[in-house]
Amino acid sequence: MNKTAAEARELVSAMLAPLSGIAGVEKVLCPPFTSIPAVASALAGTDIGLGAQNMHWEEKGAFTGELAPNMVKEFCGYVILGHSERRALFGETDEQVNRKLRAAMKHDLTPIVCVGETLEQYEAGLTAEVVQRQMKAGLANIDSAFASRIVIAYEPVWAIGTGKASSGENANGVVKQVIRPALSGLFGDTIAQAARVLYGGSVTAANATEFFSQPEIDGALVGGASLKADEFVAIVKSSQR
User: Which CATH number does the domain housing residue 77 bear?
Assistant: First the structure.
């Protein structure tokens, strides 16, 4: 929940030229709902994608304050689903994430599905159990033809906004030992190995290379660092392989 529409335009303007010069990297910006039209206009004609931070699963109706999938689709090609803050602060469940994912499938939106454990769960050694549950319930009843488009973002909750990122080795291990096996169980090995899996949680220009150098990590879901044009551009540059 950062930046007015005018501030978002200013931020994107500062990013646009350097980001457009970075080839071979899929780049997506996900501003607040009120800034989406302004950012969509700023990104027109570029190779930078646009996404929403959330959406409802219903097509329309008495859901005051929510946005329907077709409202998101009007401007965006991507949507973040199940972010830890949505789960923790607004009570979203795995089942609700699944309903949103099926709505994204119906409306041809590329979903970025977030999974991850809290500090208490991490310290209790429950990372695998929690992430497996989120994957199994959140990705249930999804057509395998669409599954190949799903992007998974592993975001350990204890690392979000705390400045305390997971280590590259630890994050890589969760992706290799938990996330890809869960995808394999749901959709088969081919999709599991081809799936794009991001790391999210206090990613900065200083530590991004540590994560991008890991064989199982394909990119990053960047939070606070994306509010600084130079920092975000540096992270994107470091993702080139």
Answer: 3.20.20.70
Q: Name residue, tokens 């097509």.
A: 59
Q: What is the DSSP letter of 203?
A: -
Rounded to 10 degrees, the C-alpha dihedral 97/37/73/136 comes to -20
Distance CA(72)–CA(181), nearest Å, equals: 31
Catalytic residue list: 83, 155
- Domain tally for the chain? 1
Residues in the chain: 241
Residue-range definition of the domain harbouring residue 48: 5-238
**How far apart (Å, rounded) are the C-alpha atoms in residues 31 and 232?**
14
Give the β-pairing of 78-81 and 48-52. parallel
Contact 84, 116 (CB under 8 A): yes
pLDDT tens readout for residues 34-73: 999 999 999 999 999 999 999 999 999 999 999 999 999 9
Cα–Cα distance measured from residue 31 to residue 29, given in angstroms and rounded to the nearest whole number: 6
pLDDT digits (tens, 9 = 90+) for 110-135: 999 999 999 899 989 999 999 999 99
Percent composition of the chain: helix, strand, coil (DSSP 3-state, to 5): 50, 10, 35
Residue pair 235/18 in contact (Cβ under 8 Å)? The answer is no
CB crowding 85-102: b at 16 or more within 10 Å, else e: bbbeeeebebebbbbbbb
In the chain, how long is the greatest CA-to-CA distance? Answer: 48
